[in-house]
Every structure is written in C-alpha cells, then in structure tokens.
C-alpha cells in the first residue's frame, strides 16, 4: 500500500514537472546556463551536478586567491623576504601544510554542508518557509565558512611571521586578509549561480525574505568595495609603510605598486565579470521571452531562479504572459460569440446602445425538414450534423468578409457590409451563397437547406439594455432574405436572391445569375422579382 502511494506521489510530481515544462522557451537554458541542466532531470542527478560545480569553482577561486596572496607576500614586498629572512620550517613547512589542508578539507566541508542543507529538494519535498530561508542563506554560509578558514590562516601566519619580524605583520594582514575577502566574495557569487535550480524550487513558495537577498545594488557595491576599494587602500598602506620604514628602494616600491595594480585589475575584472554575468542572464532570458511574445507566441514561461529584483522581473513577465493568455482566451471566446468584426469594433471603441443606417446584403440559411431528422436521430448525431452544416456556412461567410450575426436553431443570419463596410456587399453575399449551396451539396448531402439573399438599407447597431445587448441588423432586407429562404426550400438548387441584389452587384458576379418570375413574398407589400444561379 505504501509502495503504491509512493509511486502515485512520484507520478504526480512528474506530471507537475511536465505541466511546468509546457511553454518553456525552446533551445534556451532554463537557469541561464547549460551547466545547470534542465528542470526535468532527477533530483539525485541535480545534487551531483551542483556539488561538482561548487567543488570545481570554489577550488579554482581559492587557488587563485592563494596565488594572489603569495605574489603580494613574496614578490610585491621583497624586504624582509619570507624566503631568506624567515625560518625554513615556517615558509616551507607550516605555511604550505595549512594551505593544502585548508584547500582540500575546506572545499569538501563547504560544498558538502551546502548540499546537505538542500535536503528538502533532494527528497522532492515542497519547500517550507524555513527551507526557503536556508536556500537563500546558503551563499552567505559559504562566504562565512571561507572567511573563517582564511581568517584563521591570516591570524596564524601573521602571528608566526610577526614573532620573527614585526614588519611582516601588516604585510600578512593585508595580503592574506584581502585575498580571503576576495575569495569569499567570488565564492558567494558562484554559489548563487550553482544553486539556481534549487533557488527556482524555493521561489515557488514565494519571494525570498528581503534581508536575505542583497539585491542588485548590494551586489554591485560589494564587488566595488572588494574589487576597487580595498586594493586602493592596500596601495595607500604600502605607500605609508614605505615612507615610514624606508626599507624599500624606489624600484622596489614601483614594482610593488605595479604588482598590486595588476592584481587589482585581474581581481576586479573577474569579480565584475561574475557580477555582470549573474545580472545579465535573467535579463537575456526575459528579452528572449519578450521576442517570443512579440511574435505572437504566448506559450512561454520563465523559470524564476533569481532572488533579487531580477527574479521579480522574471515573475512579473510570467504574470504578464498569463494575463495576456487570459485576455486572448476571453477575446477569442468573445469573438466566437459575437463575431470577430464586432469584437474588434468593441475593442476599438466603447460599445453603446444605438444604431446607424448602413447599406448591406443579408443571407438567411435554414435547413429543410430539420424536425424530421431531429426526432429520428440521437441527439449526439444531430449536434454533429449541425456542426458540419454550420462549419461550411461560417467558413464561406468568413472567406467572403461577412459576419454571422446569429444562429437560430437550425438557421443562420449573415450580414455583409456591417459592422465592417464593404465596397460591394452584394458581390460578397451572392458569391458566398453560391459557394455555400455548392459545398453543402457535396460535403453535407444529407442536410438540404434553403438560402435567401437580399440587400438594401438596414439599421445596424447594439440593441438591448445597458446590462445586456447584442449587435444586430434590422430592416426590410432581413425580412426579405428570410422569406426568400422559405421560397428557396421548394426551389431547385435551394438558392434564391432578389433581383435588386443582383442588380447592385458588379458584372463579374451578376453574370452568374439569371432573373426569374415576380412574386409577392409573405409579409411584404411590394412584389419581388427573383433571381437564381445560372
């Protein structure tokens, strides 16, 4: 029973993941880098990936920091020398031993503890508020642990070398301490990068606590302080000691300044590159997604993986897209109910009650003997047949720029020339009627219909009350088309138009029609001359 429940839970999570995946941007790294994988991969594989990335990057940054410290301690300030003026056991024994031990054990300690704090994600549990806090505190924890390691190393080496010569004290305090600060900052940034997949899961529970997310400005100021401010202070300290101690020649002092300047450029470039990349990748994703939206693709969704204002930008984009999709759904639904042209008109101007006189053509289509197959067929088959019938009617009316005004049971009323003005509404209506009659005979032979076409002056507009109204047309052409439709049911071909409608058409359309007898239609005072297709 428990096994079945576990399988069901895993299946539910898979379905949830697939649902989240639908709409993701194709050929775009979901977390801003292909190194971080996809959101569909297993949590175990993600754990291995994150630990590997953290180990490699933290190890590389620490090696770079050690190299910078060695250059500043041993080369930038050569007097007194750590190689000739300090005991061999200290320079070639204690110092390398601590560096190697801290580098290997420290890297393992930092990465293993960081990944363990993400156990909720590995166990595929929904993140609680505490889990979310632990996720966004992880980069700070990494920086703090590295500061502890480098701080202890700074205190140890400064003390040991200070016992040999007090002149070593400021050198080690600045060189090792500065390198430790830079390493901690760099590791903070790469930890934010490596933990993006877990941060994305944590952000599903809501935005991070504000005090745990430094924000873009906090990141920039931190990088400026360590990449520019501290090195400038170091140059100032070297100048002060060179002036006060008088132990450096002008050449040695110039070399020391040049080395520190190069270190500043390198460290500043690396930190600024990391900061710029972390800042740019979410913006690039939003820019790519916006391009998809501009092209009409609303089926896109961003993974929110940043805890700063950039994450709010990603979340805001997703909210915007959801709103646009809802708006398009409502617009499509509205257009299906009232017609595309009426919907477009309602969007352009605020609809209000009232109408206007328009010259328009009208088609009335009605099924012959509908009551017989309604009573003799199952309801499902009746609906399917009506849908096939009206599909032909709607397609041809749309193709000829008409507007299906309403469906009345098994009949339909279409208007040409309102609400969109047409140059030759009679042409479009007559051509649409011929096409409907031809297609119904071929595609829906079991459903015969009568089709009537008339044209003239109508009143078109919104009719009803302020709370509920609809766009419709009223006038003699509507009544005439309905009566012609009744007459067409007993006419070969099932299609009849008024002679006035054919007379108002251009030669290209009127040549397809021939005039017939004159009749007085029911409900009309004036006789009407009929026209049928040639």
Provide structural commentary.
With 534 residues, the protein is α+β, with helices and mostly antiparallel strands. Helices cover 64% and strands 12% of the residues. The chain has 17 helices and 8 strands. The protein has helices at residues 2-21, 43-76, 88-116, 119-122, 129-164, 168-194, 196-203, 215-245, 250-294, 309-338, 340-348, 370-376, 379-399, 425-443, 476-488, 499-503, 507-510; strands at 354-367, 403-408, 411-416, 449-464, 469-474, 495-498, 513-519, 528-533. Strands 1, 2, 3, 4, 5, 6, 7 and 8 form an 8-stranded mixed β-sheet that branches. The chain starts with a helix and ends with a strand. 35% of the residues are buried. The model is unreliable at 1-22 (pLDDT under 50).
Q: What topology does this entry show?
A:
Layout: H1 2-21, H2 43-76, H3 88-116, H4 119-122, H5 129-164, H6 168-194, H7 196-203, H8 215-245, H9 250-294, H10 309-338, H11 340-348, E1 354-367, H12 370-376, H13 379-399, E2 403-408, E3 411-416, H14 425-443, E4 449-464, E5 469-474, H15 476-488, E6 495-498, H16 499-503, H17 507-510, E7 513-519, E8 528-533
Parallel strand pairs: 4-6
Antiparallel strand pairs: 1-3, 1-4, 2-3, 4-5, 6-8, 7-8
Helix pairs in contact: 2-3, 2-6, 2-9, 3-5, 5-6, 5-7, 6-8, 6-9, 8-9, 9-10, 10-11, 13-14
Q: Alpha-carbon distance between the termini?
A: 76 Å
- Which spans of ≥5 residues are poorly predicted at pLDDT below 50? 1-22
What kind of sheet is the major sheet?
8 strands, mixed
What order do the SSEs take from the amino end to the carboxyl end, as H and E?
HHHHHHHHHHHEHHEEHEEHEHHEE
Average pLDDT works out at 80
Specify the number of helices.
17
Derived structural class: alpha+beta
Give the strand content: 5-15%
- The quaternary organization reads as single chain
Radius of gyration, in Å, reads 40 Å
Question: Per the principal axes of the C-alpha atoms, what is the gross shape?
Answer: rod-shaped
Beta-strand segment tally: 8
Helix content: 55-70%
């Amino acid at each position: 029973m428990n096994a079945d429940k576990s399988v069901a839970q895993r299946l539910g999570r898979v379905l949830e993941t697939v649902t989240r995946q639908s709409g993701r941007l194709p050929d775009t790294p979901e977390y801003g880098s292909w190194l971080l994988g996809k959101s569909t991969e297993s949590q175990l594989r993600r754990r291995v990936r994150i630990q590997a990335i953290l180990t490699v990057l933290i190890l590389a940054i620490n090696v770079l920091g050690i190299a910078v410290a060695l250059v500043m301690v041993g080369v930038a300030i050569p007097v007194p020398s750590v190689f000739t003026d300090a005991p061999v056991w200290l320079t070639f024994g204690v110092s390398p031993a601590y560096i190697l031990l801290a580098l290997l054990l420290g890297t393992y300690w930092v990465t293993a503890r960081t990944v363990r704090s993400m156990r909720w994600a590995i166990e595929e549990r929904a993140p609680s508020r505490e889990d979310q806090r632990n996720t966004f505190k992880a980069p700070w924890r990494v920086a703090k642990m590295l500061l502890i390691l480098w701080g202890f190393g700074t205190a140890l080496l400064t003390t040991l070398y200070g016992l040999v010569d007090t002149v070593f004290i400021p050198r080690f305090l600045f060189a090792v301490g500065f390198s430790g600060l830079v390493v901690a900052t760099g590791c903070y940034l790469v930890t934010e990068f490596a933990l993006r997949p877990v941060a994305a899961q944590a952000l599903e529970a809501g935005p991070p606590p504000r005090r745990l997310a430094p924000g873009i400005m906090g990141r920039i100021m931190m990088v400026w302080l360590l990449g520019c401010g501290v090195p400038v202070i170091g140059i100032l300290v070297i100048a002060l000691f060179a002036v006060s101690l008088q132990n450096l020649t002008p050449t040695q002092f110039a070399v020391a300044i040049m080395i520190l300047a190069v270190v500043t450029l390198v460290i500043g470039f690396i930190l600024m590159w990391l900061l710029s990349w972390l800042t740019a990748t979410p913006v690039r994703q939003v820019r790519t997604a916006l391009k998809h939206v501009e092209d009409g693709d609303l089926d896109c969704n961003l993974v929110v993986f940043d805890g700063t204002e950039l994450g709010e930008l990603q979340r805001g984009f997703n909210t915007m897209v959801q709103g646009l999709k809802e708006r398009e759904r409502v617009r499509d639904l509205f257009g299906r109910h009232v017609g595309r042209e009426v919907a477009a008109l309602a969007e352009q101007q605020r609809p209000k009650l009232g109408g206007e006189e328009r010259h328009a053509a009208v088609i009335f289509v009605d099924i012959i003997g509908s009551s017989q197959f309604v009573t003799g067929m199952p309801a499902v088959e009746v609906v399917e047949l009506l849908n096939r019938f009206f599909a032909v009617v709607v397609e041809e009316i749309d193709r000829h720029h008409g507007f299906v005004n309403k469906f009345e049971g098994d009949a339909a009323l279409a208007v040409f020339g309102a609400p969109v003005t047409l140059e030759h509404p009679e042409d479009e209506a007559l051509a649409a009627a011929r096409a409907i009659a031809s297609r119904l005979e071929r595609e829906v032979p079991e459903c015969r219909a009568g089709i009537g076409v008339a044209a003239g002056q109508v009143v078109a507009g919104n009719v009803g009350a302020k709370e509920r109204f609809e766009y419709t047309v009223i006038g003699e052409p509507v009544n005439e088309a309905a009566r012609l439709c009744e007459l067409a049911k007993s006419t070969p071909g099932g299609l009849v138009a008024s002679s006035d409608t054919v007379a108002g058409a251009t030669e290209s359309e009127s040549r397809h029609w021939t005039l017939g007898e004159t009749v007085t239609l029911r409900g009309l005072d004036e006789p009407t001359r009929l026209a049928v297709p040639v």
